[in-house]
Design brief:
The protein has 8 helices and 9 strands. It is of the alpha+beta class. The radius of gyration is 20 Å and the shape is elongated. Pfam families: DUF6088 (PF19570). This is Type IV toxin-antitoxin system AbiEi family antitoxin domain-containing protein. It comes from Marinobacter lutaoensis.
Length: 201
């Protein structure tokens, strides 16, 4: 069986709407053979290219046609492929916890890898290099998202209400993970003050 046939068979077993990278198939053939096979599958409409080297089996919706995977999922797949750790930037994290209504026009992520821009569909995504392990703690999980939001709010904007909203967005276990994370003293005391207040409330 040719490399192209083997790749096609494997692609057809993949879950629709779940992004994957070309490196997944490198055991089946050379880079150029893999890229050529994937390009043919794109031409035939079997898969779609969502970013450089990232593809997806289109998931259909009767309302909007092809449903593209979420940008965050595409970034996770790219990061995993490069052995990077990525974390949602604070502005987006704050929005998800309803601490801000501002929609960042360009999605931004912190990364342990190099700073760069990636096109996902028609969207430009920024990856910003950080050497801070604390900023990348619990990457891809809700406690990590909460840390990112708190850093974004900053020392002067954290109050009991902000911590309450974050607490509401986390399970008891996730909040405990957040409390025991490595963080600056001002952040830890804001969380502790809220916890003690809630206990007495």
């Amino acid at each position: 069986m040719s490399v192209a046939e083997r790749i096609k068979q494997r692609v057809l077993r993949m879950q629709r709407g779940e992004p994957f990278t070309n490196t997944r198939f490198l055991k089946l053939g050379s880079r150029s053979a893999v890229d050529k096979a994937l390009s043919r599958l794109v031409e035939k409409g079997v898969i779609q290219r969502v970013a450089r080297g990232v593809f997806v089996r289109p998931k259909k919706s009767r309302f909007i046609g092809n449903v593209m995977p979420e940008v965050s999922r595409v970034i996770e797949v790219i990061a995993k492929d490069h052995g990077e750790t990525v974390q949602v930037h604070g502005a987006e994290a704050a929005r998800r916890f309803k601490l801000s209504t501002q929609m960042p026009t360009t999605p931004v992520y912190y990364t342990s890898g190099p700073s760069r821009e990636i096109r996902v569909g028609n969207l430009k995504v920024k990856l910003m290099h950080t050497t801070s392990h604390r900023r990348l703690q619990h990457a891809g999980k809700k406690p990590g998202l909460a840390l990112s939001a708190l850093w974004y709010l900053g020392k002067d904007n954290i109050d009991a209400e902000a911590v309450r909203r974050i607490r509401e967005g986390l399970s008891t276990e996730e909040f405990e993970t957040l409390r025991t994370s490595k963080m600056p003293a001002w952040m830890a005391s804001a969380i502790e003050n809220y916890t003690q207040g809630a206990a007495h409330g």
